[in-house]
Amino acid sequence: MSAVFSITPADKARLAASDLPPRVRELLGALIGLCRQTLAAPLILTVEALEQTLLHDADRARNPQQQSELMAQRGQLHTFSGHFADRMLDAVADALARLREPPTGATTSAAPPPLPGMLGLSLVAEHDVDRDLLLTEMVRRETLRSTNTLNLLGQRLGVLAAAPAFEADTLPLAPQALCAMVRRLAEQDALGAEVQLALYRSFERQVLERLGDVLDRANALLAQHGVLPGLVYTPYLARSSSTRRIITQSVGGGRTTQPAKRAAAPLTGWNGSAPSGSWSSLVQDAFNEGGAAGLAATPGLTSSTGSALHELLQQARHASAAPADSNAVPSAAVDAVLARLQAQSSSATGVADLQAAVVAQLRSEHGAQAQLGSHDRDNLDLLRMLMQQVQQQQRPDPVPAALLARLQVPLARAAMADPGFFVRDEHPARELLNQIAEVGANWLGDDDVDPQLLQRMAQSVQGLLGQDARAPEAFAAANEDVQQHQRAAAHRAELAERRHVEAARGKERLELARRQASARIDQCCDAQDPPRFVQTLLRQAWADALTLTRLRHGDDSPQWQERLQQTQRIAAVTAQPVGAAAGTDTVLAAEVEAALLQVGYHAEEAAAVARRLATPGGEDDSTSRTELSARLKARARLGEHAGTTAGTAATAPRNSAEEAAYQQLSTLPFGSWFDIANDDGTLRRQRLSWYSLLTGHALLVNARGQKIADTDLDTLARQISAGHAQLVTEDKGRLVDRAWQASLGALRALAADRTQETHA
Question: pTM to 2 decimals?
Fold first, then answer.
């Protein structure tokens, strides 16, 4: 099953306006959707990490002037960060939609700088040289890391563009093109030189270092849609005989050295929509590994994966007396028995029971010696092993279990009729099996279950029972019916998730505003040292006024600057001794009272607080401190309901394993799935929809987009280190692929045991 990636209406308009064939528009739309899904989170993390870096540098500034400069630079990002990800994704989509158009002058002018040796002897600013050298080095590093993947993608996009293969410097998804887009956006928003350099470094850490996985997924997507599916790139390297020996053998053991593989990408699709594994490759690997373990190899088997699979099964049976084929019943008679069982809606508890029922029926019709033919017996045995592995991963839910039981007879007919059932990639029957099995394995709790999906699956299986299950088209139609509902359910889940993410981001903005307000109040209190009760009023009542202003207008607005000046005036006035000649600052008191009224204070409370904050010593004869303190304590603080424990409670330092898990979490794309243990030890699949590097907050939702919990990265990292949570990767995403791999592993082990017994 190929993952379905959604695109925006603007992307559809871009593709519709381009003069491209429908097939190319469809493929480019899927590629744009993939880019939006995989690059959105890293781009958001780019600006978040940049803001965190500037805040960290400001906290460690050597003097107030340097601190103010860093805060002013951060202020430049207020508008830029809000639209950076969307503008970058639009630029990528536009580049892909214009794949067949020749490069224009605008595109050429936006290209990254040449190598340092080609800069020439022109007079340029020092920061321009630093920027050019930094971008050039970023492009060089990532191009070297992803050379093979870029070459493969350049060939495939060349096919879509009806042109020669794209080179790395012209490929829309290459590091050079992406760096050009970032530079163009930074210059359009007139970011300062230091901010630009920090942005590029953050972009490299958050985006370019993950670009290899994005390129791999782009290649896999195009290959699955038939664009050069068998393409490989193996550069020729002239080597001496000694070099070849070093590369092909390890120094001590003489074993073949395998090339290093990229870590599996996290699973981010809804409904477990990971790319399907190649079953033909799994079979070949199993046979080859079995041969390495001492299994008898038959010449020419590697040319036919189906033959290799049956040969491996025969080797596993080698020591046992297999029934002779002299009494074998024709496959047509076996299918006739299965067809009758299918019409009766047979739901045997397992394939072994189904196989026994078929043999009993055959013997009643064809004599007591009747047996299944070797080919039919092999297919049923393989299906039995597969279904046993699938059922081992099911939860005790009667509905999916019943659907799997009813699906066994159609699967058996499909496996016996289609030679490619166990080796063909993305077989429709296995796709339907995976859909039903995933529901029974991953859902836990009433809030996870989609009753409409269960009903649709039951209808599809029931409709399949009334058709000729030997035809793959019957399974394809049933699977498409389920897929159509799942796509709609995934869309609803995305909408629900988006609402929770927006709420979480709003809470984060509120908390950051509260932090900044508290930091500014602390600075004024440290500088002027007003009375203790005044400091309490500043950190409670006045902090709410500062927070609301920062949240509404931003830290680069005149309203925020006015609030900061008022804070300094409050600290200066109240720091004066009681009864100072200046008396109450009536103008300041009026401003403070108006600000407190905006955050919901009653007029009487606002006036009482304002008088104390505008009077030397913070004294006010008309109200008592005890009464005012009680009133303030009784009222809710601004945003107090939105707070979480992340970053507020003192926690023990992370050990090395927990820190490694934390660093891994900090680089994951939004939407990564985790299997997290409940209190009773059961696992529940949860989606990390959003997290913040600034506050550490994280949001987990279930398969329907409903919020499960507000947590934090530190807690999740400790769960991972303790083995209570595990990241779900794409190679572990599809249950049917995992079950088949486990079946082949068991088959290979059994074959090795039989071979050793024979040699002994």
Answer: 0.64
